[in-house]
Design a protein that fits this description.
Layout lengths: L4 H14 L1 H10 L21 E5 L2 E4 L4 E4 L2 H4 L8 H12 L9 H13 L5 E5 L2 H16 L3 E5 L8 H4 L8 H4 L2 E4 L4 H10 L4 E6 L2 E2 L5 E2 L2 H13 L3 E5 L10 H6 L5 E4 L10 E5 L1 H4 L21 H13 L2 H25 L4 E5 L2 E5 L8 H5 L3 H14 L1 E2 L5 E3 L6 H19 L1
Parallel strand pairs: 3-15, 5-6, 5-7, 7-10, 10-11
Antiparallel strand pairs: 1-2, 2-3, 4-12, 8-9, 11-12, 13-14, 14-16
Helix pairs in contact: 1-16, 4-13, 5-13, 14-17, 16-17
Length: about 425
Amino acid sequence: MAVTATLADRLVARYLAATPKSRAYHERAVQALTGGTTRTTVFFDPYPPCVERGQGATVWDLDGTPRIDFLNNYTSLILGHAHPVVVEAVRWAAERGSAFAAPTENELRLAELIKARVPAVERLRFTNSGTEATMFALRCARAVTGRPLVAKFEGGYHGTHDYAASPAGVGIPDEVKALVLDLPFNDADGTERLLAQHRDRVAAVIIEPVQGAGGVIPADRAFLQRLRDLTRAWGMVLIFDEIISFRIAPGGAQEYYGIQPDLTTFGKIIGGGFPVAAVGGREEVMAAMDQRRGSGYIAHGGTFNGNPVGTAAGIATLELLTPDVYQRLNALGERVRMGLGDLFERRGVPASVTGIGSLFNIHATRAPIHDSRAVQRGDAAYLRALMLGLLLEGFWLAPRGMGCISTPMDEGTVDALVDATERVLDELTA
Ligand SMILES: Cc1ncc(COP(=O)(O)O)c(C=O)c1O
C-alpha cells in the first residue's frame, strides 16, 4: 500500500498546475520572508496555497480556488471565518481606539466569561500568544515553589519559548535543556518514576489534556487523575495547557475529565480569531504576578495584552458558544471520526483517526495510538499524499492530518470530506 514516487510526483504536479499564483507568491515571498512564510507550521513542500480571503467554512486562494477549511487556523476559528457578529464587535471596538496603556472594560469582561466557565480559574492574565501564556505559567510555578525544573510530556506542544522547545529545540543552551524533564504521555507508572527522581526540584508539570500537535491524542482519565494526585502530594504546580482542548466543552478538557489543575493556559478560540491568550488559575499561584506586592513579583509586560479589539472578538465568540453549540460541534466531530474510521477500515488502508469533541487527526497507521511515538511510526509519505490529495479535492487540513469542526459546517460538510477522502484513496490505490 506504499505510495510510489511516481504517484507522489503526479500529485505534486497536479498541485503545481492548480496553484500558479500561490507559486508566484512563494517565489516573491522567499525574497523577503525567511522560507517564504512567517510561521513554521504553515509551510509544506513545495509551498502552501496563499490565501486571499475566508468566509464561513471556506477559504479562497490567490487562484480563486475555494477549499473547505478544516484547519481553521490550527483550531482557533471555532465560528469559521469572518463571522458577522465577531466582525461587528471588532469594528465597534476598533472605532473606539485599538489599544491603550490602561485597563479597559473588554479585558475584564472576557476574563469574567472565562472564569464563569472554568472554576479552577480564580485569577487570570492575558497575553498575546499561547507561547507567552505557557512561559508565564511556568515562571509563576517556579516563583511560588522556589524550584528550578519543569516537566512536560513527549509529543506535547506548548509554543516556542526555550522551555517549551526543549529538549529538541535548536539554539537553546544546554543549561536550559537541563532544567526540562520529558515524561512519557499516558504512562502513569513511567511518569511517576521519573518525577519521583526529582520530586523536590520540580516546580511544574505542564500537560495538554488532549495532545494537539502530537496527533490529537486524549489523555486517559486514570493517567490524568494520577498526575493530579502526584503533583498535589509532591507540591508541584499542575498546568493544563488548554490552548487547543478548550474547544471540547464550555469549561474545556478539565470540565470533560472532571479534574482541576492549578493553572490553565488558554489561547486560540478565546481570541475569536485574534491574538489573545491567557494564563489563569489558583489565586495564590497567580499572585506571583501581582504588582501590588511592590517587590518580588513577576513583571508581566506586553504592549497589546488584553487589547480591546482582540478581547471584543473573544467576548463575541464565547457568548455565541452556548452549551448547545458545543453539542452540535462535538456530534459533527464524532461523525467525521466515525465516517473516516469506517472508510479506512472498509478499504483496508494503513490509516486511522484519533480525536475528541470537535477535533480529529488522520494518521497513516493502523496501530493503536496512545502517544506521539505511535504517530511517528506512521507512513509519512502516505500521509503527505493523502493530505495533498485532499487539498486537490478542495479540503484543507494540517499537513500532519489534524482537523476540526467550525460552526458554519454541517453534516453535509463532514460527509463531503469523507467522500473526498474515498476518492483520494481510489487514486492512492489505483
Ligand atoms: C497546546 C498549545 N500550547 C501552546 C501553543 C502556542 O500558542 P501560540 O501559537 O499562540 O504561541 C499552541 C499553538 O498551537 C498549542 O497548540
